[in-house]
Specification:
homodimer, Arc Repressor Mutant, subunit A, 2 domains, three-stranded antiparallel beta sheet, DNA-binding
DNA sequence: GTAAATGCAAACCGTTTGCTGTACA
DNA sequence: TGTACAGCAAACGGTTTGCATTTAC
């Protein structure tokens, strides 16, 4: 859970407000610890506040992203997935092409490699997205092996 | 340019047809050698065939992707970008957050690292998407250095 | 009290689909 | 000549926006 104090500071620093709805959305992302899409966040929010609207969810997700409390991922689908940032724990994802399961990795080697790739072109890396897809053990086509 | 022969085989093998429009879309992707979105492909196609429709462009892009002649990338934007595959040359992208410029990398190390990450969870890797973003030399905020 | 944020509904925009007519094999 | 494909327009689904109302500060 994010410290309430820090959260308040982050928000108020820009003359913006901590509303019931913003707390709710962030709470849902934090306790879920999954990669929820906006629709799912909306559904879960509705369970606790039946008056919240989908527009508020989208605006809040954009807002939380803007102040750095939430990350968005695409996963090759046509809609975004959101998660509360786990501070200074950059991580990467694998999606199973059959069952959709998502596995997370943490590996400093990825950032290291990214920096190395950028060196020769003098590029400054800010974000690194590594997204693998394939088959998990359960879904692997019979007879194939990790190639 | 893809060999016409191979192209025909790839298409006909499934009882499907090589139409003027499919040739046109593939031509545009190959000569552009950029990462075009569907709208841009459509505009360029219209210049040479004023009767082609956007639906045909989308259907053709999906078709070319299906038979493996075209790749789609998201680049964190809300719409897809397409490119003709350069056979067995997997590559990765960097997007400048200010000017939008795209830089490509080729590095076998990425696939190597991906496989290593997947080993312990017994995952079979099929696709690897590495997408970096940050600032190019021209756009780098003044006074900052490659951290 | 007064901006900022919400809720609702309508708009938006990239993409897909249904249908009828066209053209590749 | 039969069937895959094209063109058009309408539908779709995720996301954004305009506006009146509410609420945090």
């Amino acid at each position: 859970m994010a410290q309430k104090r820090e959260l308040l500071d982050a928000i108020r620093s820009q003359g913006r407000r901590l509303t019931r709805q913003r707390q709710l959305v962030l709470e849902i992302l934090e306790e879920g610890a999954e990669h929820l899409d906006a629709e799912t966040v909306f559904e879960r929010a509705r369970e606790r506040d039946e008056r919240i609207g989908i527009a508020t969810v989208y605006r809040t997700l954009a807002f939380l992203k803007e102040i750095g409390l939430v990350d968005e991922h695409q996963f090759g689908e046509d809609h975004g997935h959101f998660e509360a940032v786990q501070s200074d724990r950059p991580h990467y994802h694998f999606t199973c092409m059959k069952c959709g399961k998502v596995v997370e990795f943490q590996s400093p080697q990825v950032m290291k490699l990214a920096r190395k790739l950028c060196e020769s072109d003098d590029l400054q890396v800010v974000e690194v997205h590594l997204h693998l897809s394939g088959y998990c053990v359960q879904c692997r086509p019979a007879g194939t092996d990790c190639r």
